[in-house]
Each structure stands twice: as C-alpha cells, then as structure tokens.
UniProtKB/TrEMBL annotation:
<dbReference type="InterPro" id="IPR036890">
    <property type="entry name" value="HATPase_C_sf"/>
</dbReference>
<dbReference type="GO" id="GO:0016301">
    <property type="term" value="F:kinase activity"/>
</dbReference>
<keyword id="KW-0812">Transmembrane</keyword>
<feature type="domain" description="Signal transduction histidine kinase internal region">
    <location>
        <begin position="387"/>
        <end position="464"/>
    </location>
</feature>
<feature type="transmembrane region" description="Helical">
    <location>
        <begin position="289"/>
        <end position="307"/>
    </location>
</feature>
<keyword id="KW-1133">Transmembrane helix</keyword>
<dbReference type="Pfam" id="PF06580">
    <property type="entry name" value="His_kinase"/>
</dbReference>
<dbReference type="Pfam" id="PF02518">
    <property type="entry name" value="HATPase_c"/>
</dbReference>
<protein>
    <submittedName>
        <fullName>Sensor histidine kinase</fullName>
    </submittedName>
</protein>
<keyword id="KW-0472">Membrane</keyword>
<dbReference type="InterPro" id="IPR003594">
    <property type="entry name" value="HATPase_dom"/>
</dbReference>
<keyword id="KW-0808">Transferase</keyword>
<feature type="transmembrane region" description="Helical">
    <location>
        <begin position="12"/>
        <end position="32"/>
    </location>
</feature>
<dbReference type="InterPro" id="IPR010559">
    <property type="entry name" value="Sig_transdc_His_kin_internal"/>
</dbReference>
<keyword id="KW-0418">Kinase</keyword>
<dbReference type="InterPro" id="IPR050640">
    <property type="entry name" value="Bact_2-comp_sensor_kinase"/>
</dbReference>
<feature type="domain" description="Histidine kinase/HSP90-like ATPase">
    <location>
        <begin position="481"/>
        <end position="605"/>
    </location>
</feature>
C-alpha cells in the first residue's frame, strides 16, 4: 500500500479561518437586527410604563385608604375616647397603659407605620416613640380649623422620614360633637414606595423614578431636582396620557405619567429613562442567538471536514490513555502511535511525541513518588494523633482548683461522706480522660458528665437543675472522648454561674437517619450572649477550622488569646474537625437573657461498624 504525504498546518492558521467566518456572519446578523431597535423602543417604554404606573397608583391609593380605616378605628375607639375625655387621665397609669396597648396593636397592622400619636386639645400627648415636639407644629396648624382625614406634611420621626396623616378625634354619643384632640399616623414613605417598586419590578426590566408630592407641591418622596423639572413641564389633560420630561441640566429624557389623588391632595409621578432598553435588547439577543446558531451549524460542517484528522488523532490518543488506565503495561513500553491522514496538525504530532517522553519519565518517577507519599501519609497520621492527644489533655485548671477548694471546705466541716463521693468522681474523670480509646460510646461519655455534674451540684447546691433526653439508639454511638464535659462546663461557668436566678441544663441526643449523624445538644437557661458576642464566637469557630498551623500548642494559644471565655468550645471544635473533617462540627445559638444551645453533630457509628470496616476513626478523618 502506497503511503501518502501528510500536509501539516498549524492549529493557529486553521482557527483563524473559522474565526474570520464567524465574525463576518455575526456582524451581518447584528446589523440586520439593529434596524428594529429604534422602532420597538418607544412602544415598549410606553406600554411598560402604563401598566407599571397604574398598578403602583392603585397600590398607593389602597394603602392610604387602609390608613384612613386605621385612623378611624383608633380615633373612635373607647380607649382613646376615655383617655382624652377623662379629667384625671394625666395621673391614671392604667388608662395610659391601655392606650399604649391600643396603639401597639394597631402598629402591628401595617409594616409601614412608623409611629401613632394622640395629641389632646389640652396638650396631652401619647405615642409609640415619637416626641411631642415633632407633632406640635402640625397640631398648632390644625388647632383652629375643621378638617377631615388628610395629609399634613413630612417630619423626621425616630430617625425616619415619615409622611404624617392626621384625623380629628371627636366625642361620640354625647349629642353634640366636640373635638378632643388629633390622631397622627406617621408612614415610612421611603419603605412603602421602595417596596412597591421592588415587588412589581422583580424582573428588573427597568428602573423607574418615583415622585410623590402634596397639593402644596411639597415633595414627600423622590429626587428634588427631578421634581423641579417635572413642575416646569406642562402635564397632559388626561391622566391616561403619557408625556415627556427633559432635564435641563442633563441629556436624559423621561417618559412620565401623573396620577392625582384629589381627596387626599396627593400626586404620584412615575418616570422611566428612555435609554433603559433591557427588554428590547433581550429580544434582539434572542434573534441573534438563533442566527448565530445557524452560523455555528455552518461552521460545524466546515470544521468537521477540516478537523476530522485532528479529531481522529485525539481519539487515538484517548484510546491509548484508556489502555494505560486499564493497566496495559505493554502499551506503555510500546508508546503512542499516530496516524493523522491527508491533512494533519503539527501540534498533534508534537503532543504525541511529548506524551511518549512523559510516559518514560513517569515510569522512572513512580517508585519515588509512591515511597514519598507513603512516608508523608504516615507522618500526617502521627501528627494528627499527636494533636488530638494534646487537645484532649487540656483539662481546665479552674475546675480542678474549685473542686479542691470545695473539698477543703468539706474537710473543715467534717463532711467525710461527701468528700469520698467528690474525690471518687474527680479521680474517675481524670482516669477516663487519660486512658482508653480515642472513641467511646455515648453511654460511657455520659457517665463522666454525670460525675462532673455531681461535683458541680455539690458546689452550687440548688442553683440549677439537670434534665436528660436521649433516644434509645443514641447510647451506642461512638464519639470522641471528652467532648461533652467541656461544653457542659462552659454552660455552667459562663451561663448559669453568671445568672442571678436558678437555671437548668438540658442534655440530650437523637439520631438523624436521613443524613446519617447523631445530634448531641447542651442547652442552658443562663445569661446567654449578645448578638455581637455570638457572631464573634461563630467566627472563631470557623477560623479554628481553616486557620490551623499544624502546631496544636500554638493553635490553642492563639484561640485562647482571641476568645478566652470560649476556649473549651473552640478546643472541642478543633478535635471534631481532626476526627471527622469540616462536615462534622458544632453549632451554637444564644439569646441574651434566655440561654445558650450548643449542638454537636457526629457520624452515627457503633462498635459493629468499626469492626466491619476494620479501620480506625483517625484514618477515616484523614
């Protein structure tokens, strides 16, 4: 069979041909689609603005109608009427508390209410948080006038820019109406309108500008410079019409719609920048995508013909690699063979040559790499065992000191029986901590915890109670030794001991079959932690997982310096990570004045599991 000559072309030249073809075709499609761009621009903005603005106007009007109903329900409630009409209301604490309860219940009816205030004719004032000084200008303005439910302006209430609504409070059932005072409702207008915009514009098709003003042309919400531009632009005769607003100081042109709420004396303006054409661009992009797909199909046909030898060569290389993966030592010695055909690639030829050279070098390095890896693995395992042993040995000296002090006190009072119990429990704890396997059953760990709590009960007398709640299948689960006792100690020292009232500790465990872990929790009703302290502790727990140096002593000293009060928790977390990896660690939740809950999650494994797999837990962690 006559051999034919292979023509080699650089891959760069072949790809250049494909790239030029792709650019020319894509440019033609882009020019074609751009012709429709200008035509759809105005239609899109007008229709979108109309639907969006009408819905926003409807929502705003409904919101203010609901505020009117809220004002009526408060102004003419018996609690408010009795408070304002009572002659000794200033000295009646119960009447004031009833009024506060009424206002607080009403406050919960709507998330945008910032404050509710009652301003009596004689200057009596009550509110949820605002000051009388904030409402006095409005009360003075309305004092001598007869007015219905209306808007009176804006004011800064509790640090929030609020729209103030007012309603007169008049007597009921007396035959002759008499004004008792004024009810003020402070609405967080920024929150109200921004949430409405977010809910209706969740797809982010455009970013509208919202302006909200009263009958006196005072801006309640929006950009002041834009509002001045709107006022200088004549509005259309009908609210259904849209019109253009052009800013004098910038080239931006807006399409606007205006809605008037005549009963409330309010005006709503919705404006959209004409340059926001995201939806149109999406339509054009879809058309470009379809056209580009057709071009890619043509390119694919061309590449299939041009690069078939290239693909065949790669397939040869892949088949050879699979043969090596299957353990074909003969193929390694023979090397990879290449047959590119009529049109070939210089890069493919170089790849095959380099691959064969790599096989030779790989064979030479295999034994060296294997020996090095074995030594590194054994060293890593020994280091982890050493680090775990060091962390487990860090028994809190304060516990030992306090226990010995308590024994001295018992000895001074001749309490021999209690001394025997306490010293026996103490020796049991220390014997357990330094002997035996690294993993123990939860039942064994619980016995040591009970010994520790017996000592603490002797020390603190009736300061706290203990409750246990364990599922039946939890006791046989294997856990690292001495992980529960430090957490119980932390709950007593930093939770219950600092509390001025009696507390309790709940210790429990339960299996989660779905996710294959055992959850162990320690809950105390102590002083708890403020949010910033809880966040700092959670950050320290995460840092103890990722910021390890390999020196257990140095890592423990660093954790102690950063969070001394929680060194026991960080110690336990570090040991959990060494045993099981970052997937099994501890979780902590706390609320100041309520208590703290710590949860450990460990893989649910028993002695039968370890016998079956014939492997140590340390190796599994590695």
């Amino acid at each position: 069979m006559k051999k034919h000559k292979t023509i080699l072309l650089p891959l760069g030249r072949q790809f250049s041909i494909i790239l030029v073809l792709f650019i020319v075709c894509t440019a033609g499609i882009t020019l074609y689609n751009t012709q429709d761009y200008v035509r759809v621009q105005t239609d899109f903005l007008s229709s979108s603005l109309d639907s969006y603005s009408s819905q926003l106007a409807k929502n705003t009007l409904e919101a203010y109608d609901s505020y009117k109903n809220i004002c009526y329900s408060v102004a003419y409630s018996p609690v408010v009427q009795d408070f304002l009409s009572s002659k000794n209301r200033q000295s009646s604490y119960e009447a004031y508390q009833e009024l506060r309860t009424q206002l607080e219940n009403t406050f919960l009816l709507n998330p945008y209410i910032s404050d509710i205030a009652v301003y009596g004719q004689d200057g009596t004032f009550a509110s949820l948080g605002g000051s009388a000084f904030s409402y006095k200008p409005f009360a003075d303005k309305l004092e001598e006038t007869s007015f219905p439910y209306c808007t009176v302006g804006t004011s800064l209430i509790n640090g929030t820019n609020c729209h103030i609504l007012a309603m007169p409070i008049c007597t009921l059932g007396t035959g002759q109406s008499q004004r008792l005072g004024i009810l003020f409702l402070a609405i967080d207008i920024n929150h109200l309108l921004s949430n409405s915009m977010t809910n209706m514009n969740s797809q982010k098709l455009y970013e509208p500008e919202i302006l909200f003003a009263n009958a006196q042309q005072e801006l309640i919400y929006g950009t002041r410079s834009l509002y001045r531009t709107v006022l200088s632009t004549p509005a259309p005769q009908s609210e259904t019409d849209t019109y253009e607003v052009k800013a004098n100081s910038s080239p931006v042109t807006y399409i606007a719609k205006c809605y008037s709420f005549r009963k409330l004396g309010l005006s709503l303006y919705v404006l959209v920048d004409k340059s926001q054409l995201t939806s149109q661009i999406q339509t054009i992009s879809q058309r470009q995508f379809l056209a580009t797909g057709a071009i890619l199909l043509l390119v694919f046909l061309f590449v299939t013909f041009l690069y078939k030898p290239f693909l065949d060569s790669l397939k040869q290389l892949i088949d050879f690699m699979k043969s090596i993966s299957a353990g074909n030592r003969k193929a390694i010695r023979k090397g990879a063979q290449i047959h590119q055909g009529l049109i070939g690639s210089t890069e493919i030829n170089d790849i095959f040559n380099a691959f064969n050279e790599m096989l030779i070098k790989t064979e030479e390095l295999n034994h060296t790499i294997f020996d090095s890896y074995t030594r590194m693995y054994e060293l890593e395992a020994n280091n982890r065992k050493t680090e775990i042993a060091f962390l487990r040995s860090q028994i809190n000296p304060h516990f030992l000191y306090n226990t010995l002090t308590m024994i001295c006190g018992m000895a001074a009072e001749g309490m021999t029986d209690k001394i025997i119990l306490v010293t026996g429990a103490l020796s049991q704890i220390f014997r357990y901590s330094i002997k035996g396997n690294d993993l123990v059953s939860l039942r064994e760990e619980l016995e040591i915890v009970k010994s520790y709590l017996m000592i603490q009960k002797e020390r603190f007398a009736d300061r706290f109670t203990i409750e246990y709640n364990f599922s039946d299948d939890a006791y046989d689960c294997l856990i690292p030794k001495m992980v529960i006792q430090p957490l119980v100690e932390n709950a007593i020292v930093h939770g219950l001991e600092k509390s001025l009232k009696p507390g309790s500790i709940l210790i429990g465990a339960g299996r989660n079959p779905r996710h294959g872990y055992l959850a162990i929790w320690i809950f105390d009703t102590g002083v708890g932690m403020p949010p910033e302290k809880l966040q700092e502790l959670r950050h320290s727990i995460a840092a103890s997982v990722h910021d390890k140096t390999g020196d257990a002593s140095a890592d423990l000293a660093k954790m102690d310096a950063q969070n001394h009060d929680s060194i026991g928790i960080l110690n336990v977390n570090s040991r959990m990570v060494l045993y099981y990896g970052a997937d099994y660690t501890l979780l902590i939740d706390s609320e100041e004045g309520v208590g703290t809950n710590i949860q450990l999650r460990v893989p649910y494994q028993t002695n039968d599991f370890h016998k079956h797999h014939n492997s140590s837990p340390l190796h599994q962690g590695i």
